Amino acid sequence: MMLPTSTYRIQFRNGMTFDRAIECVPYFKALGISHLYASPIFAATRGSTHGYDVTDVNEIEPAIGGRQGFDRLSRALKDAGLGLILDIVPNHMAASTENPWWRSVLKLGRESPYARHFDIDWSERLTLPILGKPFKDALSDGELRLKRDPESGELVLGYCDTLLPLNPDSTNLVPASADEPALVDLAIDEELIVNLHQAQHWRLTYWKEAARHLSYRRFFEVTGLVGLRVEDEQVFEDSHRLVLELVRSGQVEGLRLDHIDGLADPKQYLQRLRAETGSKIYIIVEKILGHDETLPASWPIAGTTGYEFISALGHLFVDGGGLQQLGTAYANIAPDMADFTAGLRAAKQLMVERYFEGETTRLVKIVHGLYPDLDRAAIVAAIHESLIAFPVYRIYGSKGPLEARDADVLSRVISSAAEKLADRRAIDVVARLLKGGVREAAAKEFRRRFQQLSGPVMAKAMEDTHFYRYNRLLAVNEVGGDPDIKPGGVEAFHALMLKRAKLNPHGLSATSTHDTKRGEDARARLYTLSEGADVWAQAVERWREMNRDRLIELPGGLTPEPNVEWMLYQALAGIWPEDFLNGEAEALIGRFTAYAEKAIREAKLGTNWNEPHAGYEAAVKAYATALLSSTNLVFHEDFGAVMRPFIETGYLNSLSQTLIKLMAPGIPDIYQGAELLDLSFVDPDNRRPVDMTASFASLSERTPIASLTVPALKQRIVQTGLHLRKRQPELFAKGNYVPLKVSGARKDHVVAFARELNGTYVMTVVPRWMLGWLDPGVLFAGPEFWNDTVIQVPAFLEGRRCDLLTGQALDPRVELPLSTLLGSQPVALIEPVGTTEDHEIIA
């Protein structure tokens, strides 16, 4: 298998085209990456900002350069010695008339050649939840009109900007007079519209009805994305024609598979994809692993996109004792939100009862059809409790018995669900169906649909609801994280990395992605709140009092409520500039208030996406704006003074986690622009265009490392680490992970490990928990801080060595004093003397 030594993620669209990416190729090469990692490049809906709403899987998006632009980029990458990894979307496409397959289905129904390409229940007409009001109201308001499609010339039914193709057999209902060009755009008699609508393969519905009833599988709760049936051989072939062409031509060397858990049978799909692409292609999957969960060993892939690596870093840098203190303070402020387990259950219950009501109702219908003697209410309760009890995204298996790992998960789920039920008969039936013990076709459908639903329930409940309600420490509310697990410290991190080296050595190691809740450097800064929990808690109380007159009285009470206030101060801490000037406030206000609006809508308490509460949202955004207002000088001075040590320690955390990512098991992934500083919020803030010209200019500076600003220093560390990986690919692809023993008074403040292979090695030494130990403006503690702390170097790592970042020669003895390694610099990267070839990188 071809293995990248590193990847650099680019978000195409939003101004990033293939030709703009070509301009960046010299920068990518100078930085040291081996592969560009591209967001979806296939044709998507007009104005798409992300490309996951694909309309044509066999066309490259014209807006970013089309096939010719892609070919130019491919040549430029190859000329520079770089490869390309593509993000593809096998689970879904856009449910849009811009999608020719979907348009064919709307027009021809079950007779369309693409009718079985989508996961549609054809026992009824295809539901289209696009109306902004009930059908009768839209009709009476004249919003439904007969029009002529400007491209095809055919008669269509128009609603807003959507032109819906008509069943050819239904056009005889339209009077000849209405077919005249001069009359086409006029409102047609309501009775005619009703009759015409009844004659279609689809029916229009109010968008709010989709949660209760929908005749096709959607992506999560997004009705604009319809599930693909890639388990069908013809669908696989049709939807992968261009992807496979690009792979076989050598233009694409790796694939990232979006939302693998959405597929009916991920294992079958991956085996088919591997057979079609060959053994050399690098394949990774977007898969969120629960605590102690591992990838199925039978999947023929290199690993995941790396969310679990972010979680591991959180557990390393967060102070467990301080986290407990934060929890106490948080419980005093927001007692109703402080119980994580109860909150997660409530969020899951909301999902299964409301947001995925239609999907759960369909499961109930299947079970009731198989077992009509069972009480329907008992079936509902059993299915709901089973979904709520799932500790991971899903189990797998469409044929035969479950693998041992999944059987164990299911056993625990059923046991947990049964505790909530008065009658076990229904839950025993659910267990039997999920184990594959019933052969009827309906039982297989239940098994498949339940597996495809448990993931969305978990994702929407945990990441997109509970993570915006439970605000104890936002830094650990991250995709793939579990904020309720006590941090295990250095020893637990070493254990995780040893496990990663064994089970997932070639998956990506991510710190920022297009889906993370906040940028890696904002997260690194917020970790430090656990080190100064008492200072932070007292400051929040003081700031709340300072800004008390900014609260707005609503019928539900003063707004924002304390839980949201606590959240806003943390969110602000993550983006607060080192030297805040009131002139910067305006630029921050827009980003901050947009984040505040998204956070409270995702929390689904005072407002939500489906039914926004204008008054509540206005009050929260007014408060957020007031925090940054140029008239709030006293608060700014206090906030800035409190934040200063957190910011500086956060910078050091940033450098530490960056070097760990570069050297740990896995393949480091650099998200666009994050090689400098990434203090972004959740999307769309983290998908803003990046100034690559500034990045290249920073990289080109040959300033001595001791004189670099923090962003440039981080970039230099990234460059040094990536070039080291390119020089020694075998060391990082196959090398052992060796935890290094640290002794002395400050042993808990350092993380040290080596990568070793056949006598070749590199050692990584970084600090942690440094709040209160740094002088202002200095990113390291002096030799006196480290005192007697030393690294015990194993005998097989002895010999002459130097620090690759500074070029400093180091003592070859068995013990390495931390006072020497970190007494005058932030982090250390140690290599045996004589192996370094790129001295210009570290000058």
Automatic annotation (TrEMBL):
EC number(s) recorded for this UniProt protein: 5.4.99.15
Keywords, comma-separated and alphabetical: Isomerase, Plasmid
InterPro entries to which the protein is assigned, alphabetical: GH, GH13_cat_dom, Maltooligo_trehalose_synth_4, Trehalose_TreY
Gene Ontology BP, a term: alpha-glucan catabolic process
Domain Glycosyl hydrolase family 13 catalytic: 6-425
GO molecular function, one term: (1,4)-alpha-D-glucan 1-alpha-D-glucosylmutase activity
PANTHER family named in the record: ALPHA-AMYLASE FAMILY MEMBER, MALTOOLIGOSYL TREHALOSE SYNTHASE-RELATED
The name this protein goes by in its record: Maltooligosyl trehalose synthase
Naturally occurring in which organism (per UniProt): Rhizobium gallicum bv. gallicum R602sp
Lineage: Bacteria, Pseudomonadati, Pseudomonadota, Alphaproteobacteria, Hyphomicrobiales
Gene it is expressed from: treY
